[in-house]
Amino acid sequence: MEYTYKYPRPAVTADCVVITNEAEPKVLLIQRGFDPYKGCWAFPGGFMNMDETTEQCAIRELEEETGLRVSDIHQIGAYSKVDRDPRGRTITVAYLAFVDEPIVVTGKDDAAKAEWFPLSVLPNLAFDHADIMADVIKLCPNIIARNC
Questions:
Q1: Which residue, 65, 58, 98, is CA-closest to 79?
Q2: pLDDT > 90: percent of the chain
Q3: Which among 63, 124, 132, 135 counts the fewest CB atoms within 10 Å?
Q4: How confident is the model at residue 70, as a pLDDT?
Q5: How far apart are CA 139 and CA 137, in angstroms?
Q6: Which of 28, 9, 15, 18 is nearest to 116 (CA)?
Q7: How many CB atoms lie within 10 A of CB 44?
Q8: Do the beta carbons of residue 126 and residue 70 sit within 8 Å?
Q9: What pLDDT, on the 0 to 100 scale, is given for residue 144?
Q10: Which DSSP string do the residues of 89-105 spell out, in sequence order?
């Protein structure tokens, strides 16, 4: 069944912020292998398939791009700035997951690399991922010490 809509529809993505539960927490980032922002660091994430929820998308993209598998994630929020993605109108739903310590990860799929960074020493982030990280810290001010 095909549908024609009067109004254009945005693309939907999901991103996963994974943070370690350590005295000096670290966050998992991927180095983008393709444009836009090729070579820049970002949270693992990508476009949602038609047969999945945003939560399923975040979990799938995390595993596809880093090899890390998680099952317990919590929604941070939706991000919809008009110009957040130069490829076109894209809305993302960001999720948060915790792991006890850094787990071995590898850049896979469209990620050139995957690495853990201390929260105190983050590189410049692609898209609006700095805004997402700021919201994680605002929502969980004790994140530096323990999970919220």
A1: 58
A2: 85
A3: 124
A4: 97
A5: 6
A6: 28
A7: 27
A8: no
A9: 56
A10: -EEEEEEEEEESS----
> What is the distance between the terminal CA atoms of the chain, rounded to a whole angstrom?
44
Report residue 43 as tokens: 């949270």
**54: three-class secondary structure by DSSP:** helix
Beta carbons of 94 and 132 less than 8 angstroms apart: yes
Do you know the residue count of the chain? 148
pLDDT at 141: 80
Query: Can you point out the beta strands (E) in 43-141?
Result: 45-47, 74-79, 90-99, 111-118
Judged against a pLDDT cut of 70, whether residue 147 lies above it is answered with no
The Cα–Cα gap between 95 and 47 comes to 14
Confidence of residue 5 (pLDDT cuts 50, 70, 90): confident
pLDDT for res 8: 87
CB 22 within 8 A of CB 118: no
**Domains, in order of start, for the chain:** 11-144 (3.90.79.10)
Contact 19, 71 (CB under 8 A): no
DSSP state of 14: E
β-partners of residue 26 are 118
Check residue 145 and give its pLDDT: 52
